[in-house]
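Standup notes, protein team

Yesterday: finished cleaning the Gracilimonas sediminicola set.
Today: NlpC/P60 family protein structure.
Blockers: none.

Input for NlpC/P60 family protein:
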Amino acid sequence: MTKGTLIGLALFLFAGCGTVERGTIPWEENSPGNPPASTPSDADENDTRSGKESGTFVEYSMPPSVQEKQEFLELAYNDWKGTPYLLGGSGYDGIDCSAFMQVVFEDYFGMQIPRTTREQLQSGKEVKKSQVLTGDLVFFKTGRTTYHVGVMINRDKFLHASTTNGVKISGLDHPYWMETYLTTKRVF
């Protein structure tokens, strides 16, 4: 290979990795922002991500596998890692915890969820802490009237927009999170 070919290949690989455009679903082959098929009849029978809208959530005929959820959450982390916390923010210049959950579920899973932590807290099915799974929303009561939300990436760690460090992964077993833990909700 020539030096020019190697440089071109390196630039292609560098440009092809990393940030996903806001509104893009990683597994969607069509244009950015397209949700998964809206009805099972419009989708391939073998496509586990197809579903239909029901209220604020998409009902999946077959939810994404644990491995798919982990891959999408890893992609979300790599795309948003270090984005600073900004109350009311919803972009790469700053984002709050509930907006980040909205972005993760919309852009990486094709699901609509409510905007605020309190609204998200009212959604989904409650799950015991000992039974958390990848993709579950985990909630914390961080003050007298304040709440925090993240999404489980495995049984021990969750992805969230931290008020002090921005988008990051934290352990559910950290003393602060153990003390403030409120509940877990499963939305798919």
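Follow-up from PR in the comments: The first helix runs from residue 3 to 16.
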